User: Fold this.
Amino acid sequence: EKDETGCARLYHYENDATSRFAVLNGSLVTVAANQLRVLDERSQVLYQTGVRFSSPDLVSGGDVAVAYDIGGTVLYALDSKGLRWEWETEGELIAVTVNPHGYVTATYNKNGVKAAVTVWDSKGEEVFTFHSSQRFVMTAALSRDSRTLAAVTMGQQDGAFQSFLVLYRLNSEEPVATTTVNGGVVYQLAVMQRDFCLVTEEGLYMVSDSGEQRASYSYGGQFVRRCAAGDGDWSAVLLSRYKSGGYASLIAVDANGDELGGCELDGEVLDVSAAGRYVAVLFSDRLTIYDKDLTEVATLPDVSEARAVLMRSDGSAVLAGATGATLYLP
Assistant:
């Protein structure tokens, strides 16, 4: 049932400032420092367990979300009905990603090597592991077709630190390609329809599963604040002219490195989320939903209680606050 603003109150919970959220087929997953939950649209608890996380994180892809503690060792893979599988790694977790088919990739520390990366399928069966003995691994992600693993590594080249993208096929521990990453530090590794998108401090770089850089997009000297991937062929990038404060613009970029659209933003931005052909921007005083060419689709005023937004591919958005979450149906 919607109120006059087009919102339906669906989820009730208790959380704190560490909470992270994900939506899976109508269910809401929440993880905080001391608790992990899955709630259905009637706010019934489908799964709940106590945790002791110092830096909780939650990532999702397809119909799977993974909760973990950065620096911890346990992965909780969840679906819309509850816990699907659980795994304990041999060392501290660095980063976790989930591809669109629910395959989970974890980067973690391991004795005797710089880092290790393991891939599990959506049922929790281990399908691939490799150990990096020469370079540190910052993050890794599996391609959309679940055949190629990309790992962002860091090492020294000509006396200076340099980032690399190393590609593996899941049937071999020998890399098929190693590509030098331009653009400085890599903040994020996203999976596109055909390529991997590296979000660096200077621009976006689209690299194929054979290691070829197909396209790029420069920030033009601006600073990247956030990047959210849409349906696999575009990304929304939040840029600022300054290192802190003063959000300037939102730019939509396609897989060829071309701008689909752009708009100037006025106000403090709390969160950005993209799904399908839409991107939602949560300001401190309102929520605005844009099409992927950044044409404004809908605006919801008075969202002062919201802390996070989760865009859904059908054009609706979940607003998560301190004690509950609502579904906005424009």
